[in-house]
Specification:
The protein is α/β, with parallel strands linked by helices. 53% of the residues lie in helices and 16% in strands. The chain contains seven helices and five strands. The protein starts with a helix and ends with a helix.
Length: 192
């Protein structure tokens, strides 16, 4: 693990935040998932890699606070979604574009998300969705998005992205889907 940590720290040190989020990290996450899927990584490997990445990226998040003038976003996952790296990448990309990003972590009920978004006066809540094997779970995610949209002020946008997002149909009115980190980047740019 210490060698992996040194390699990760060297890669982070040699990258600007935007490039790290868009170019370096997504393939790394995919490779970890692929190795777990085909059995070359055991659960312990995947957990160790995830902990290493979470710690490194959390440190980056703490040092990139953004600019109050651009606004604040909240990034998280819904209750039942344990895959947090999409939300963490969203938070880092927002920080790279000067936004203040509040990263809440995974597996939060919509009411807790609403409370946090209200407290920081979020301009948007960005929800990452990755995994729901059963259609009933997908329906549950859509219901949570509806509860979140209903609870937030109209001025606070609700955006959803990740591998599962295209399968959450129909999305509640007032919830927008982002198909990629590049789509999020277009949303974050000041030309909006």
């Amino acid at each position: 693990l210490s060698r992996a940590d040194r390699l990760l720290q060297a890669a982070i040190a040699g990258s600007e935040l935007r490039g790290l989020v868009l170019e370096l990290l997504p393939p790394l996450f995919e490779e970890i998932g692929r190795r777990w899927e085909i059995g070359t990584f055991h659960v312990a490997h995947e957990h160790a890699a995830s902990a290493l990445l979470r710690n490194a990226l959390g440190g980056i998040q703490r040092t990139h606070r953004g600019d109050e003038g651009k606004g604040t976003i909240v990034a998280t996952t819904l209750s039942g979604e344990l895959h947090e790296f999409g939300a963490l990448l969203v938070s880092l990309l927002a920080s790279a574009h000067g936004w203040q990003a509040t990263y809440l972590g995974p597996n939060l009920p919509s009411e807790e998300i609403r409370l946090a978004a209200s407290r920081v006066r979020a301009r948007a809540v960005l929800v990452s969705t990755v995994c729901a094997e059963r259609p009933a779970s997908r329906r549950h995610y859509v219901d949570q998005l509806q509860q979140l949209r209903d609870a937030l002020p109209a001025a606070c946008e609700v955006l959803v992205g990740g591998a599962l997002a295209p399968h959450l149909r129909p999305l509640p009115e007032g919830v927008s889907m982002l198909g990629s980190l590049e789509a999020l980047e277009r949303w974050l740019t000041p030309l909006r």
